[in-house]
Structure prediction request, 689 residues.
Amino acid sequence: MSGTDDQVDEILKSVRESPTYLSFWSAYKRIQRLSPKPSENASLRASIAIIGSSTLEPLAACFDVKMRLEGFHPHTFVGGFNTYHQEAMNKTSELYKAEPNIIVLAVDAWSLLDQKFLSNYPLMSSKSRSAAIKELVNSITAIAEVLEKNSAALILVNNFIVPTFSPLGVADNKQKLGFKKFFRRANRLLEEKLESASNVFVVDLDSVASDFGKSRTVNWNTYYRGSIPFSEEFTPIVADEYMRYFRALKGLTKKCIVLDLDNTLWGGIIGEDGIEGIKLGPTSPGLEYVEFQRALLSLYNRGVILAVNSKNNFDDAIKVLREHPHQILKEEHFAALRINWQNKVANIAELAKEINIGLDSIVFIDDNPAEREQIRQIYPEVMVVDLPKNPHLYRATLEKIDVFDVLSLTKEDMARGEMYVGKRKREELEQSSTSIEDFLRTLELKVQVKLTDDFDTPRVVQLLGKTNQFNLTTRRYTDAETKSLRDAEESAVYSMAVQDKFGDEGVVGVAIVRKEKMSWMVDSFLMSCRVIGRSVETAFLAKIIADAKTAGAKRVIGEYIQTKKNAPAADFYEHHGFAKQKESGDGAIWMLDLAHGTVEVPDWIDLIEE
Amino acid sequence: MTDAEDTLTEIISKALLLDKSELTDDLKRGDYEPWDSMAHLTLISEIENEFGIFFEDDEVVDIWTVADIRSLLSKKISS
Prediction:
């Protein structure tokens, strides 16, 4: 490690000890002066840009340092004061030079509105008010569209902070278009106009400001002295909101909540208080636990996996999940359960293995600080929630952790819970079958392979972004890149959907091929770990090989690039009769000569072609 | 050193990107490159926030050295 890196680490350590705005600002300036080299590890590099209508360096400083605190090495571009228009329009501007992953567009409504807007609002007709809304929103969406066209970045557009003051007083909402409604309408229109742009997100700054307290979002001294839009306390909060998108973009989303039972899902101890004695019901004490469970269920219903890790007699605890009239989370909501007297560290490792996710995808919730500390020490990669002692605050704590963000919610996310029920039933069947083939035959597997269309592209991009284990090359393509591969003639993007008699898994596989006249090169081939062990990858590869033959290609070339996590895919090409062409430090190139070899669809799989 | 003096030193050193030990009373805006307009603005508002005071525009402009800050602040707090 170089001296510069040590100095940067030292600066970041001081920010961790005292995470105030001044610490963020000072750290940012000091690190900029050191100008550290970008990381050699591409996945840790990040490039961000913040442009807009005011002095945005303080906000950029907080965003930059927050990324550094999570181990990234950002390059940060800050636009000039109110020069965002030129920066966006000019394709060769500094803004685009560093190829940003994220561009924040932070434009204050007041910078776009007429100088007389506030004074004249009471005199304006509703027609001219309405026209002013459209003009305001169009000037933002026009810039967002240019940014989207000129770059592959994720574009974050701040919405407007709805003022708390109205010159119309309490009669504001008796007007057809009151002063506050003007801004609310503008926000709604902004969201509507940008809803279908998959690379553009409207950041709900108004809601973030409300939660923080709108009267504290501006420091009028720095506002007038230096056009700084947000107060010292509020600036890091806005950066936190951008971090949610950054984490989602980098695939750092948590996938699973592992829950304790006693004094976490209900009040009291089941082994001592009995099923009638625990606190769980429609009035407090008891209601706080019911509402905590409802919030957990809302996350489950959008794809967050739930699991139990509890020290209890299994029969006592499972009875609550199965029979208690006010229990919201039932046995079938949990992908896996560990209710025993084993230590929780061992349990959590088993749960991760059973559910087939990494420990770094797990959030652990337990009321006992000693259990939390133990997990934290042994598995620092698990996110351990500091649950407050007061159960009235459980639900609020859960709603604040913001670590489950994904950039698009697919139908596979919504149905994930049912898929885990299917998984459990499949495992029961596997145990009762005499051979693996026998088991696969009884599953009634159907595999559908097709060229990706608009409908399944979001899911394909999601899989490209987060699949780690069964992933031959781990190339992460953005939404824009995937669409251009899909639409180009010399390449094709395939998706694979799988179903069996226990349920529909939806789209679980992606392959990208680059087509040359004589040979097809498999650029990417991946499959969700959920369907490993059912030979569906063979059917998927068979379909691609059949297409290559039809197109007149003589060979199919495959590539394997080793990562820390993709060992399950290492033997893929060898198993399917490919010959090794070249080997390098972290992978190999494989080839199948189509004149002599092919890959057949396993006879227990029904391959459905488009 | 009193707590207030210590807090002030902490603020000045962070805003001017120095370690506390590197900070001297004769450090001067204009001579020291990191003390630019943004650093000055940050310095002033952090002191205002911490001590619950307000600097008039003239006072902001007239602060040139670390010693100026210390004397102006003690005048404001004691008045």
In short: Chain A is about 40% helix and 20% strand.
